[in-house]
Amino acid sequence: MRWLLAGCCGLALINISVAMLITQKPRFYGVKPRRNVGIYCLFSKKIPQATVQWYKADKYDSKHKTKIEAGEKFVFHSSNLTQNVLLFIHRLQINDAGVYFCKLNNTWGPGSAVQVAKPLDVTQALYRTKMKDALIILQGLVLALFIAASLLRKQHLLEKRDIVYEEPETDHIYEGLAIETCGGDLYEDLCVYAQPEDAEAQWE
Questions:
Q1: Predicted pLDDT of residue 136
Q2: Which of 42, 47, 70, 192 is the most exposed place for a label (fewest CB within 10 A)?
């Protein structure tokens, strides 16, 4: 039983040591479209008659990896003892971005990330900047108009409320009517609009 456990531990250590021997250079590419790049899969010791396989994934921790086949886009180069050590990618495009892994004897390499930057169009960038500034100004004007309309409506409602609750003016029916009095406060004391003193009454 002890020998069986020791054998399992030994195999595990061998697998770990093999996994630690694989490296990839470079670990990152950031290039423009239509550029050519190469990724190397290296080992600390030579493994005779070994064949490296290459895979592509969207992320480092992605479980789904697509195997890369040789063609016009992807070209493999070999060293003296190991096949397909170098992966050469021709004329990179946006959809070529991802993480490329090499694999040898069921052991994966650490991966090399490739990012393809979109080409910058100065004319389009300036146009978008101007459009963004115009939209910001338009939003400011619309906001100012909305605030002004709200204030005017509020002022109109206040004026309307003041008109509804305003007390009507008191109309004086007898305003402007002057009655001459002879110093008395009673109707009997009202002076008669008399004729001149020297005039005689008609009945006399």
A1: 92
A2: 192
Answering whether pTM is above 0.85, one says no
* All residues at 6 or more sequence positions from 190 whose CB lies less than 8 Å from its CB, including other chains: 179, 180, 181, 182, 184
For the domain spanning 19-116, the CATH number is 2.60.40.10
- The Cα 168–Cα 20 span in angstroms is 99
- Provide the β-strand partners of residue 25: 40
Span 103-153, pLDDT tens digits: 988 889 999 999 998 777 778 778 888 888 889 999 999 999 999 999 988
**Between β-strands 50-51 and 82-83, what pairing exists: parallel, antiparallel or unpaired?**
parallel
Q: Where are the domains of the chain?
A: 19-116, 120-162
Mean pLDDT score across all residues of the chain: 77
Whether the pLDDT of residue 197 is over 60: the answer is no
Torsion-angle region of 45 (φ positive above 0: left; ψ -120 to 50: alpha; else: beta): beta
pLDDT value at 28 more than 90: yes
Half-sphere exposure for 117 (CA within 13 Å, toward CB): 7
Q: Could you give the CA distance from residue 162 to residue 156 in angstroms, rounded to a whole number?
A: 10
d(CA 148, CA 3): 89
Beta-strand pair 86-89/74-77:
antiparallel
DSSP secondary structure of 118-138: PPP-HHHHHHHHHHHHHHHHH
